[in-house]
Design a protein that fits this description.
Number of strands: 0
Radius of gyration: 19 Å
Distance between the termini: 51 Å
Oligomer: single chain
Structural class: mainly alpha
Helix content: over 70%
Shape: globular
Largest sheet: none
Length: 300
């Protein structure tokens, strides 16, 4: 089997592991919404979510070893599509027609994007200067989004800002993972203790914690949709700005890619809409919803 099909297989398996991890995180957030995020380290379900995300990360590394960032990252959108039935099964509900429609649009847009990828050079590592610049710019961007989230009054706005920061952190972690993996093939274990590997660890852990905070204010759909969309978009920017990756077809290909991305984005929007709640499960009238007033706490 050639390299590109292997990259796709590993990337889809990674998306499945990440989907299971996201569902575990969201259920934990729903059950422990008043606990500081770092207090979740005492819960077994948190470590299950960490294990699933670690498995997703390992499979992602394998995918990046066989294919370029712009091919592997769009497949991360499947995380949302796979999490949809998983999350519904956890609460004993059926997936709504609107959510399936969103999943269809997301997959259709993703397939077109994959057909336009022109991976002429295969996997490629960032240079030391580019890796350092990426880490600094990403840290500043994530910090700015966190500040904006802390200042936001609406719960949904906070959730989406934290989720955007998480998606960017995961995208940068992916780019740095590809770099560390390729360097390790040449330099051995030394590459695992380099500044790039340290930046990778910070971004990966930061993305996980930011996602957990995002789930507190709005459930699974909206934050996971935002993380899933922000991740490949940021990765595309990284790949094209620093790795020389391009879409096939020149200007026409770019226009078609934009159309496909728009369709996939609209699918994500549909998936982010809350599922209808059966009448028997609706909250009693007069019971306050404190999500608008609750501020996520990172430490005790």
């Amino acid at each position: 089997m050639s390299a590109l099909p292997l990259a796709v297989i590993f990337a889809i398996a990674s998306a499945a592991a990440y989907a299971a991890g996201a569902v575990a995180q969201e259920r934990l957030a729903a059950e422990a919404d008043h606990e500081p995020v770092l207090a979740l380290l005492r819960r077994a379900r948190w470590w299950l979510a960490v294990g699933l995300n670690a498995a997703g990360g390992g499979l992602h590394v394998a995918a990046l070893a066989y294919g370029p960032l712009s091919l592997v990252q769009p497949l991360g959108v499947l995380t949302l599509v796979l999490a949809l039935p998983m999350g519904a099964a956890m609460v004993g509900r059926r997936v709504s027609t609107g959510h399936w429609r969103g999943a269809g649009l997301t997959v259709a847009g993703l397939v077109v994007l994959l057909l336009l990828v022109a991976p002429a050079t295969g996997a490629e590592a960032l240079g030391s200067g580019d890796a350092g610049l990426l880490a600094v710019v990403a840290a500043a961007t994530v910090a700015a989004l966190m500040v904006a989230a802390r200042l936001a009054k609406a719960a949904m706005a906070r959730s989406l800002l934290y989720a955007t920061a998480s998606g960017i952190a995961f995208a940068v972690a992916s780019a740095l993972t590809q770099t560390v993996a390729l360097r390790a093939a040449e330099d051995g274990v030394r590459a695992l203790f380099s500044p790039v590997a340290l930046a990778l660890a910070v971004m990966a852990v930061g993305g996980l914690l930011l996602a957990q905070v995002a789930y507190r204010d709005s459930g699974l759909g909206a934050p996971l949709a935002t993380v899933t969309l922000a991740n490949p978009m940021a990765s595309a920017v990284i790949g094209m700005a620093l790795l020389g990756e391009r879409f096939a077809g020149g200007a026409a290909g770019a226009a078609l890619a934009l159309t496909a991305a728009t369709a996939a984005s609209w699918g994500v929007v549909l998936l982010a809409h809350p599922a209808p709640v059966p009448a028997a499960e609706e909250e009693p009238v007069g019971e306050p919803d404190t999500a608008e007033e609750r501020e996520p706490v990172l430490v005790s």
